[in-house]
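User: For this week's homework, look closely at the record that follows, marking any run of repeated tokens, and judge whether sequence predicts the tokens.
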Amino acid sequence: MIMGRLLILLLLVTSLIEAGTIRLYMKDGAYHTVSEYKVLNDRVRYFSTERGDWEEIPLEMVDLKKTEKEQKEMQEATKAEALAEREETTAELEFRKEIASIPAAAGVYLIQGSQMKPLKLAEQKIVQNKRRQVWKYLSPLPLVAGKATDELDGDRSEFIVNEERPEFYFRLAKEERLAIFKLKPGKGGTRIVENIAIMPVTNEVIEEPVEIETFRRQVGELLFRIWPTKPLEPGEYAVVEYSPALDQGSLTLQVYDFSVRSKSK
């Protein structure tokens, strides 16, 4: 209710300014709508916008303090609105320039300062029944019944991010889901992307990732902006493109890993 009244007041003030009008207040609470006025000794001379002519009124009848106060408020409101419009326009132009700088190739990109940095597509490895099988950028990944883990070699990513809420651009090759996963430490200096269970007989694939809550915004054709809703703690993460495991015995997952570290490290 209060915000609605403030908006109405702002629109009224703006319309008065745009029309070049001033409210010349009387001490009895009434007012004249004028385009200009001047104080002449014991009287006030003004141009009435209602009657289109110059008129005069005794100074003692005019509430100059209230009139000048409203004029000042209107001028300040006009300046604030103009500043907000300039800032919004500048921000929009900068955002469009940033969008135009995203490469056309499918992938994940992070803007750090004035640099555009692509994240590397990680080489995944399926660990199952104590045997390690490696697929290099193969999708979907073939699976057999049982429990498995999708892992990356190395306990840390080579791509370092010093921001707590990094914003990534993700250009997809086709319509798929995207997310940010929290990676868990695995055995022998590896990182676990997610746990996987493949049901016998049906070959139903059940994925168990640790998904981070994110904001997503589409900013172009197959181009999305994704960022965490809350600051990320130091650790290992990945921006992931995936399809739900609907195909029996297969897994579609593209992983772009990164490491969040404190600025002091």
Summary: Residues 2-100 form a domain with the SH3 type barrels. fold (CATH 2.30.30.100). The helical segments are 2-18, 64-100.
